[in-house]
Amino acid sequence: MLVIKNAQVYAPGSLGSVDIAVEAGKIVAIAEGLSLSGLPFPVEELDARGLLALPGLIDSHVHILGGGGEGGFATRTPELKLVDCVRAGVSTVVGTLGTDGLARSMESLVAKAYGLRAQGLSCWLYTGSYRVPPATVTGDVMKDIMMIDPIIGAGELAVSDHRSSKPTQAELGRIASEARVGGMLSGKAGVVNFHIGDAPSALAPLRELVAAGDMPRSQFIPTHCNRNPQVFAESLDWAREGGWADLTTSTVPRFIEEGEVPASEALKRFLDEGLGGRLTCSSDGQGSLPIFDDKGVLAGISVASPASLWETLREAILSRSVPLEKAVATATANPARALKLPGKGELAAGADADVLLVRRDDLSVSGLVARGRVMMKDGEVLAKGNFE
Fold first, then answer.
1. How far apart, in whole angstroms, are the C-alpha atoms of residue 98 and residue 197?
2. Which of 163, 211, 241, 374 has the most Cβ atoms closer than 10 angstroms to its Cβ?
């Protein structure tokens, strides 16, 4: 057993100064002054005095196999490392392919997910990539979702982007239907994650799918919703109408100069509009951050990081006066609800014991517990991958 003592707990709503008892990877009790002395087995105590205890972060859009490649083979980005998630306070990731669904396969993506699970993280996946027809394991989107445990939906399908395969509405509708039914039959979310590019069509392909009348808005999760002012404005409208919107926290200064809405600013604007309950944030971790010139030629590239997720929430809290519990919900309770991730996104009896510990004074990451295992303590990483 593990007891986290003396923390100020946000579940993500404030619970005050209480202790958290953990057994077999689950939270078994949250109460004041828990005492487990006298039990016939060892109890580890983690003193969290001076710390806030939050749900472990859910990074809901991560290229766990790496991404990129738009500038040739030498620009392929590296795979996700366990240690990078631990340092970032991320206990759950949702993996996806991206531009490259050829050299990086769904089989490899599933294997990577099982590897991350074996090392202590929680991991789920989307089946498919930018292209249509989608890359799958079984040859069928519905079968992938229904029969392969980590796969919860389809994506990331690219629309309104020069790297898209220009799918027709009929093709997108078929994938959405297969994902939805696969989710219904398996009890999973069955959502479709859409990469939204810079083209003027923006969210129009999603609106056309909804306009057909047989798919709810909640079936679709557009990401990169802060990538330019038009996409951001349409994403606010989409959320007002009941849809989900996902902000990307990784960026480079050039993107901001070219009109990308900083994720912390976008988060505050969603909250000011009363739309915080329809918002998630994700890092696009290990994805490439490509810069194209006006002719569409790659001019530079860097790598997105899971660390940007908490950095963005921290900035929103400290610099933009966003209430802590509302900022934290966008990377905990909200993605858990949107993606139907069991046991995730909250600190409560029966939930998975995923706990992020941050310092009260500056909100820097101090510790992480993932599925009951102490992965980082007092800023020191205790869990690393086999080859890290």
1. 13
2. 374
pLDDT of residue 194: 98
Per-residue pLDDT at 236 exceeds 90: yes
For residues 385 and 83, the answer to whether their CB atoms sit within 8 Å is: yes
Token code pair at residue 104: 């990086």
Confirm if 129 and 156 have CB atoms less than 8 A apart: yes
CB atoms under 10 Å from CB of 37, counted, come to 5
Q: CA 209 to CA 276: how far, in whole Å?
A: 24
CA atoms within 13 A on the CB side of 204: 11
Q: Tell me the mean pLDDT in the region 355-366.
A: 98
Residues β-bridged to residue 76: 68
| Global pTM value | 0.95
What average pLDDT does the segment 10-23 reach? 95
- List helix spans (H) across the chain: 82-88, 106-118, 141-147, 169-186, 204-211, 229-240, 253-257, 263-272, 307-319, 324-329, 333-338
Q: What is the overall mean pLDDT for the chain?
A: 95
Other Cβ atoms within 10 Å of 230 Cβ, number: 16
* Catalytic-role residue among 19, 84, 144, 284: 284
Query: Which residue's entry shows tokens 């005492």?
Result: 35
Label the pairing between strands 191-196 and 220-223: parallel
Take residue 68 and report the two structure tokens written for it: 């990129």
Structure tokens at 182: 């696969």
Determine the Cα–Cα distance for residues 224 and 175; give it in Å rounded to an integer.
20
**Number of residues in the chain:** 388
Cα–Cα distance for residue pair 156/223, rounded to 1 Å:
9
d(C-alpha 105, C-alpha 138), whole Å: 12
